[in-house]
Design a protein that fits this description.
single chain; 322 residues; Neuraminidase; five-stranded mixed β-sheet; 4 helices
């Protein structure tokens, strides 16, 4: 079960008529090179990819798998040092977030210590802290320092048509997000999968401040029931951001903008790559030759590696402009 499937267990489909900020920059075409079929590794329906040490972690409908990719020797030469951390992912089998890291040639896991009694869904580690999101009623983000007390920061995006929506309902609405921390640990970005909302935030002195919140489209929802209402979307809802990769100066974001009605199961496949600076200013928008669902940035080569849920589960390489 992947994160997308997990969210469907929390909420149903309702209606949306997305509107809001328009992209004024013209689309540029970015070529994609297929380098490997992950189906040969027994991986199907991939929806996320991350690099840890000399391995790829690929998230798919069957769980989390590791791959030593072919034909990318220069990338695989870079490994994680003794002081480097791994990546934190939600493990539906353990019903918690788990950190994956390399030890020699092996990929290991360890538990992540976060505030007890809360449902944690997404987390990312900075230099001496962890930023997480989940079904939190006290704030959008939980800041957990290596030493000291964990604190909540910022509010959830409001829905103008539903001003009385509770914080608990908002937490469910924005449960499926992608969270990435800048390599220096001073900034992070959080993109929502089921709306066009993306936050750019800074971290300092034990607190979180919102730098910019962009809304390409808000989730236009309705509530079903009175005592315990459910958030419901229709098949006209447009998918938002499926994955994010970060560099020191730029943020790379996959955007779908498709609805289930018009694209069926392919509504999670993204043909658009948006590039922002860390203040949330749009720098470029690229049209991709093939739809992809997950990306990972490789600083040494200035490339993105991407996966798709297309037949044979291709692994792609996207060469970025200098």
């Amino acid at each position: 079960m992947n994160k997308l499937s997990f969210l469907f267990m929390l909420i149903l489909f309702s209606c949306v008529d997305p509107s809001g900020e328009k992209n004024e920059k013209p689309l540029k075409r970015l070529k994609i090179e297929g380098i490997q079929n992950l189906s040969e590794e027994g991986i199907y329906d991939a929806w996320g990819i991350l690099k840890v040490g000399n391995k790829f972690i690929v998230r798919s409908s069957s769980g989390i798998a590791t791959v030593e990719a072919k034909n990318i020797d220069s990338m695989l030469s870079r490994s994680v040092g003794d002081n480097d951390e791994g990546v934190i992912l939600y493990d539906c089998f353990q019903d918690n977030v788990v950190e994956y890291f390399t030890e020699g040639d092996k990929l290991q896991t360890r538990s992540v210590e976060l505030l007890e009694g809360q449902k944690h869904l997404v987390a990312a580690r900075g230099r001496d802290f962890i930023i997480s999101t989940g079904l939190y009623e006290n704030g959008r983000y939980l800041y957990t320092p290596r030493e000291g007390e964990a604190r909540y920061f910022l509010s959830y995006p409001d829905l103008p048509d539903l001003p009385d929506l509770t914080e608990k309902m908002k937490a469910i609405l924005y449960a499926s997000s992608v969270l990435r921390v800048r390599p220096d640990g001073m900034r992070f970005v959080c993109a929502d999968m089921y709306s066009g909302v993306i936050d750019f935030c800074c971290v300092g002195n034990g607190s979180i401040e919102l730098v910019n919140r962009l809304c390409l489209h808000m989730p236009d929802i309705r509530l079903i029931g009175k005592k315990q209402p459910k958030i419901c979307y229709t098949r006209d809802s447009r998918m938002g951001f499926t994955d994010v990769a970060v560099a020191e100066d730029l943020v790379y974001v996959l955007y779908s903008g498709k609805s289930y009605r018009e694209a069926g199961k392919d509504f999670t496949s993204c043909d658009t790559l948006m590039v922002f600076d860390w203040d949330g200013n749009l720098q470029n928008t690229y049209n991709l030759e093939h739809g992809v669902t997950g990306i990972s940035y490789e600083v040494g080569e200035n490339v993105l590696y991407a996966v798709s849920n297309a037949p044979h589960t291709p692994l792609f390489r996207l060469q970025l402009p200098e």
